[in-house]
Amino acid sequence: MATEALTRKKRAWTDEELEALPKDGYKYELLDGELIMSLAHARHGEICMRLGSLLFNFVDRKELGKVYDSSTGFRLAPEVLLSPDVSFVNKARLKKILIAPDKFLLGAPDLAIEVLSPSDRLRQVHRKLDRYFEHGVRLVWWVDWTKEQVHIYTPDSVNALTRPNDLLSGGDVLPGFKCRLSRIF
């Protein structure tokens, strides 16, 4: 089912209302006041776990901050609550945006990773990218597992990795992190 068909009317949603949504297997996000619901396939979950494991091991070993999965919400604005498939927040930013462990993070991650789903629509992808960068995300990896590609976005550039031996780098956000695409796909 397409994500567009699974959206609910635009309106203001409180944290309490979002937290009270049913635990029905959907991932809920709020994009410009529009509630977006989506499901992920097996391959999507596998890629998320691979990336999450690689990042977690690197970040944990170097004590750089925290890595989060897709169940973590980042409240970017009253009408925007996004949950990247995998995200990283450095220690300094975490001190500013972690209000309480049982609340949404109040701000953006440093790195947001989105693994594309068949239901994703280009218009929504671009809106998410815009919101991420408007609210301080420094790096976004858009992963297209069907084409085995990673698109790397910064506030002022975009690059694509398309070959198994291409190196995915953490850049200024995660200095020293490198991974060949063949380890992800």
SSE series: HEEHEEEEHEHEEEEEH
Strand order of the largest sheet: 3-6-7-8-9-10
Largest sheet: number of strands, sense, barrel closure: 6 strands, mixed
Number of strands: 12
Structural class: alpha+beta
**Oligomer, anyone?**
single chain
Q: What does the average pLDDT come to?
A: 92
Task: Note the total helix count.
Answer: 5
Helix percent band: 25-40%
Which key phrases capture this entry?
single chain, 185 residues, alpha+beta, six-stranded mixed sheet, globular
Description:
The structure is a single chain. The protein has 185 residues and is α+β, with helices and mostly antiparallel strands. The chain is built from five helices and twelve strands. The strands form four sheets. Strands 3-6-7-8-9-10 form a six-stranded mixed β-sheet, with helices on both faces. The longest helix has 21 residues, at 42-62. The chain starts with 14 loop residues before the first helix and ends with a helix.
